[in-house]
Amino acid sequence: MKARRTVAAALSVLALTAVAACGKDGSPAETAPNGSAAPQLPTYTVKTDVKLDGSPAWTEAKKRGKLKIGAKADQPYLGFEDVQTTKRSGFDIEIAKMIAADLGFSADQIEFSTIASANRETAITGGQVDYYVGTYSITQGRKDKGVAFGGPYYIAGQSLLVNKDNTDITGSDTVKDKSVCTATGSTSIANIQKYGAKVTQFDTYSLCVEKLLTKEVDAVTTDDSILKGYAAKNQGKLKVVGNPFSEERYGVGLNKGDAVLQKAINDALKAHEDNGDWKKAYDATLGLSGSAAPSIPALDPIAG
The whole model's pTM is what? Predict the structure, then answer.
């Protein structure tokens, strides 16, 4: 959501262990919803013959020997940083790493920076990051501020998170007079009020989820990708229900003047979607929610 508030970084979660370096298997300690061993994270072969001399960001990254990537740090199974180990994990982190490998950078050559949502455009256009991956919706307003996009790599939509034993709420058309929680200031509020829900607001989605687990509210609503992260964190307790009732096209943000890098990012996404890495990354992260992988969206060559 354009005005979404995300969970506090100090949240205690069981984050997946990120791949520490290219060529080493990621082995999350979680189990899948059916009790079997969790799917393994994919590994990415680093390309050694990359030449993107027409890209200012890539040229500078090669000089410094590191890629600077902006990300979220407080979204379980999407973009999360363990405050004790500083390791990053989640679907968006895997997207960032697979792109990096095709740009010629291994996982230990990535310098992640947590960028607040309000500062993303400034960080990208000011060169603070080479690209940004973090539930970043492709919008005209952001393009007008000097941002181009690779992707989309995921289509999200507002959905509903409920307790596993809830059979009353099956989608947006079943929330009339139900207590639905979301973040203060989120565009989710107006969207769900259209369906007659009684909206409860908190500063963070984490508080909404706490109230859901104690059954003080009937549901939580925001992007389905974020809700899947909470369902994965609380396996066996929560589930995402219904079809999404909005659309958010997640893209990789980069400087609008860098067409060479934009094409390279799209090429990397296409390659890793085609070879199965995208699906493997989803299954080992958001897929732990019990929600099957959605269709891979078609890339938009003019997303910038």
Answer: 0.80
